[in-house]
C-alpha cells in the first residue's frame, strides 16, 4: 500500500512517527484515560514498548503522528484494513480526531481499500459517535481481552465501505 510520507489538513500535519516523538508519545500513553481505550498498549506504560512504536510503520497500511504547530498531539492510521487513533487528553473535544480520521480514510481508500474496519470498547461512547459520524456502521458486538485493562471487555465492530463514504 503506497502512502504519502507527509500530509496536511486544515490545522494538522501528518508524518510517520520517529525516535524524536518518544517523549511526547510516551507522555500521551502515560495517561490511563487514553490507554484504557486502546487495544494493544500496555499499562502501566512501558518505555521500551513506546520506543518500538516510535518509527515508521512497516506493516500493511500506515500510521501517522498527528501534529499541531509542530507538537505531537496523537496518532491516526489504518493498519491491516482497520482504523486506529489516539490523542492526548488535552486535545479531546476539539475535532482533531474527526479531522485526522477523514484524512486517513481518504488516504486508505486512495491506496485501494474498499472498506475500513474499526473497533471500540462498548464504554467508549465518544469514539463510537465519531465513527458513526464518519459513516461507519456497526456490524456486531463481542468481547475480547484489553491489554491495558487486563480483562475481557465488550467491544463493538464497525465498517465503512468506500461506496458509503463517497
Automatic annotation (TrEMBL):
Q: Where is the signal peptide?
A: none
Q: Where is the N-acetyltransferase domain?
A: 12-165
Q: Which UniProt keywords apply?
A: Transferase
One Pfam family from the record: Acetyltransf_3
InterPro entries attached to this UniProt entry: Acyl_CoA_acyltransferase, GNAT_dom, N-acetyltransferase
Which GO molecular function terms does the record list? acyltransferase activity, transferring groups other than amino-acyl groups
The keyword Mitochondrion belongs to this UniProt entry's keyword annotation = no
Name of this chain's protein: GNAT family N-acetyltransferase
Whose protein is this, by species? Answer: Pelagovum pacificum
Q: Give the source lineage, highest ranks first.
A: Bacteria, Pseudomonadati, Pseudomonadota, Alphaproteobacteria, Rhodobacterales
